[in-house]
Specification:
Length: 340
């Protein structure tokens, strides 16, 4: 019997003592017990060439070697497993005596805060809140609002088109058309929501911003009703002393039309970068609903009249929260957002 079983056992004991991790243990198991080239497997293959008189002794020595190898590998595997479990327990152990960590609670965005306040004001004034799609057909975005073909507002440099006949709405006036088609006068609705225009971002402009449109249609509605409604809204939102002015303007969907501004909250009317030196910041456009718009929505302009207005919620937020740049509302800067 030429195989040196004692030498093989000593070699295995030396190699198994150097195992430090699961990867080296797998390599050692393959080296000794691998089916094709393992050292123990090679010794087993010699069994057929051993003389008959020596086979009993060879088999006994082989079994002892195999037992040593298998036992040694199992022992080291258990030791590695225990070591890994101990390390895992140590990493995941919680010291219950340590003070707890404060959990940062989320809160509403300043635009949402102001939007809810605006909705509450108008609901108290008898208006209902309407919603509508942000992607609209050119009919609702332009045709129904008396904006004809060739008008600059319909050009791609002003409007974000999705396809030839679909666009991201450029005003929430589209919701008013849906409301007039679905309901009959008298009706009072507001439509807050996001709108999209190809504006260059600056302190008072953003390509995506929030707007609230208002519509009041009934018998005998006049421009005086519009002015009274807007002034009451500003009084409830900013207080009785908030200076507001009205000035004539033109919009295709109203006749006559006007714009109303509030005094610049930064310079108090003296002129600055925010108000572009005018002392005033535009709050929105308004006017008496154009007869053609009423007619398109299925309402007889001979029987009913109405007014409409649109406010930029972002600009109102700038006034409400003393912001000198509406881009702060969309900066995702936690130092700014955590103030609300």
């Amino acid at each position: 019997m030429s195989t040196n079983f004692d030498g093989l056992q000593a070699q295995f004991e030396n190699e198994v003592a150097s195992v430090a991790d699961a990867e080296s243990l797998r390599a050692l198991r393959d080296r000794w017990l691998g089916r094709k080239a393992g050292l123990v497997t090679d010794v087993r293959k010699q069994m057929g060439s051993i003389p008959a008189g020596d086979r009993a002794a060879f088999g006994k020595a082989f079994n002892a070697l195999q037992q040593v190898v298998e036992t040694g590998l199992e022992r080291v595997g258990q030791e590695l497993s225990q070591r890994e479990n101990s390390a895992l327990i140590e990493r995941e152990t919680l010291d219950v005596t340590l003070p707890g960590r404060d959990v940062t609670m989320g809160h509403e965005h300043p635009v949402t805060i102001l939007r809810r306040k605006i909705e509450d004001i108008f609901v108290r004034m008898g208006y209902s809140v309407e919603d509508g799609p942000e992607i609209e057909t050119t009919f609702f975005n332009f045709d129904a609002l008396n904006i004809p073909e060739g008008h600059p507002a319909r050009e791609s440099q002003d409007t974000m088109y999705v396809s030839e006949d679909l666009a991201l709405r450029s005003q929430t006036s589209t919701v008013q058309i849906h409301a007039m088609q679905r309901r009959t006068p008298p009706l009072r609705v507001i439509a807050p929501g996001r709108v999209f225009r190809r504006d260059t971002p600056d302190a008072t402009h953003n390509p995506m911003f929030f707007q609230v449109e208002g519509l009041n249609v009934g018998e005998g509605i006049t421009l005086a009703d519009l002015r009274g409604t807007c002034e009451e809204f500003v009084r409830q939102l900013f207080g009785a002393e908030a200076p507001v002015r009205f000035r004539a303007s033109y919009f295709p969907f109203v006749e006559p039309g006007c714009e109303f501004d509030y005094q610049c909250f930064v310079c108090k009317g003296d002129g600055c970068r925010v108000c572009k030196g005018s002392g005033w910041i535009e709050m929105g456009g308004a006017g008496m609903v154009h007869p053609q718009v009423l007619r398109t929505a299925g309402i007889d302009p001979e029987l009913f009249s109405g007014f409409a207005f649109g406010f930029g919620i972002d600009r109102l937020a700038a006034r409400q929260f003393d912001l000198d740049d509406i881009r702060l509302l969309y900066s995702n800067d936690l130092r700014f957002l955590e103030q609300f």
